Automatic annotation (TrEMBL):
This is Protein BUD31 homolog 2 isoform X2. It is found in: Nucleus. The keyword Nucleus applies. InterPro entries: BUD31 (IPR001748), BUD31/G10-rel_CS (IPR018230). Belongs to the BUD31 (G10) family. GO terms for cellular component: spliceosomal complex. Keywords: Nucleus. The keyword Nucleus applies. Its main location: nucleus. It holds the Pfam family BUD31. GO terms for biological process: mRNA splicing, via spliceosome.
Length: 117
């Protein structure tokens, strides 16, 4: 994480500078989520400790438990107040319904996190 924060931002758009940090936060949360919910390799006490200490995002994990949000990349992509016309992010649109085949989310750099993909 320190290496990511200290990387030079030359030639990147302003929004692109935070993408690696969002990616690492997603990977840490997903790893802890998978260890507890999918593989059942860690105890409830350790899982709660990781959430309490901030090793994983409690709110993002809560969304992953709901149908339709199993692959959500970040919480900002589902908040309608951050997008034009009060809709969800473009990365939440299933691939077969997109006009453009290659897209990137402006907030986190996701290339598609819709559950139907």
């Amino acid at each position: 994480m320190d290496d990511t924060e200290n990387d030079p931002h030359d030639g990147k758009r302003k929004c692109e500078t935070l993408w690696p940090i969002f990616k690492i936060a997603y990977q840490k949360s997903r790893y802890i989520f998978d260890l507890y919910h999918q593989r059942k390799e860690i105890s409830n006490e350790l899982y709660e400790f990781c959430l309490d200490q901030g090793y994983a995002d409690r709110n993002l994990i809560a969304k992953w438990k709901k149908p339709g949000y199993e692959r959500l990349c970040c919480l900002r992509c589902m908040q309608t107040r951050d997008h034009n016309f009060a809709t969800a992010c473009v990365c939440r649109v299933p691939k077969q319904l997109r006009e453009e085949k290659v897209i990137e989310c402006v907030h986190c750099g996701c290339k598609g996190c819709a559950s139907g993909d």
